Amino acid sequence: MSNENRFSYFTPERDNEYLRRTIRLAEQAVEHGNTPFGAILVDPEGNILLEQENIEVTQKDCTGHAETSLMRRASHQYDKAFLSTCSLYSSVEPCAMCSGAIYWGGVGRLVYGISEERLLQITGDDEQNPTLDLPCRKVFGSGQKNMVIVGPVDAMKDEIEELHLQYW
């Protein structure tokens, strides 16, 4: 079965619903004193398995990005065979570190809202977000796994950008 067929449950409308949840998590992250990022893990039937907001600031953990934290938890709870059937949703394109965590964790599909390039345009030289110019497709493309990547999702662009424009 091709990668695309493995994820036939997921439609653009469903992807938008899950991305909206990551935006709510990003808003919660800000309320809790962190930067505005959120991620969720969804199984092949569409059940949200894990949710994670960014915890980098409050936990004083440079690896506390939403996606890396989520993958740390997921790898303790699920095996790679199962994770290969799951989709990870992120409000913003995962950075190089988070992309590595997603890759090594074995997630089969990634959906993200806005690109890291767009985030850099919004954040500028803010020391809290020293963005690397290393798109997730390049990170994943350097490996041996055939992942499905959806993003940036234009339908969610305005809502995600507004959150970041207000924060940064």
How would you describe the overall organization of this protein?
With 168 residues, this protein is of the alpha/beta class. The chain has 8 helices and 5 strands. A 5-stranded mixed beta sheet has the order 2-1-3-4-5, with helices on both faces. Helix 5 links the parallel strand 3 and strand 4. Helix 2 packs parallel to helix 8 and helix 3 runs parallel beside helix 5. The longest helix has 20 residues. The protein is globular. It starts with a helix and ends with a helix. The mean pLDDT is 93.
Rg on CA atoms, Å: 15 Å
Spatial sequence of strands, sheet with the most strands = 2-1-3-4-5
What would you call the structural class?
alpha/beta
Topology as a string of helices (H) and strands (E) = HHEEHHEHEHHEH
Instruction: Summarize the amount of helix as a percent range.
Output: 40-55%
> How many beta-strand elements?
5
Q: Which residues sit in consecutive blocks of at least 5 with pLDDT less than 50? A: none
Largest sheet: 5 strands, mixed
Shape: globular
Calculate the terminal CA-CA distance, rounded to whole Å.
43 Å
Rounded mean pLDDT is 93
Strand content is 15-25%
Q: Which short descriptors sum up this protein?
A:
single chain; 168 residues; alpha/beta; globular
